Amino acid sequence: MYRNAATKNFEALLDGQELVAVTILLKKLQAGYLSDYLPITAKQRMGKILQRIGFTCVVGAVEASWKPFDKVWVVHAHLIIGNPKPDQVNELRKLVNSWEIDGGFQCKEVDDDRRSAISYASKFFTYYKVGRYRKFPLRGALLEELALWHSSGSFADHRVMIGGRFKNPWK
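Above: the chain sequence. Below: its structure as tokens.
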């Protein structure tokens, strides 16, 4: 229900705008250390960076996923940016690339399926191993660590939103 509500809110805010989808890797953490970088910390960091660069319409969410071959958690943000200026995107790319996280910045224009792109940017739960390899559910200590990370705050702690207000679907 939350993801549907977030998607509707985000679609309304982004209506009629050119969209760019961005994924930013914020932090890599060893198993057992995910709680050292809480969602609210990641969200606040993203908000400051995006506002400093001058973006006026951004929606998305902060998420953590497990990379089993590297044995690390990757805290990242999926963002949809409305009407970005090319120099703003380049400035964001340069900043993120200076963090020296491999693959730290990915960007593409959203042309066709706007709803799917916006919905994907609003997700912040991944309970399975992601990537190019076979997917499988997180188990044991990893699933518990992810659950504790998510329970450290509220839905709002994961949501990134600049230029609008989120309408609470439960009111």
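The longest strand covers residues 19-30.
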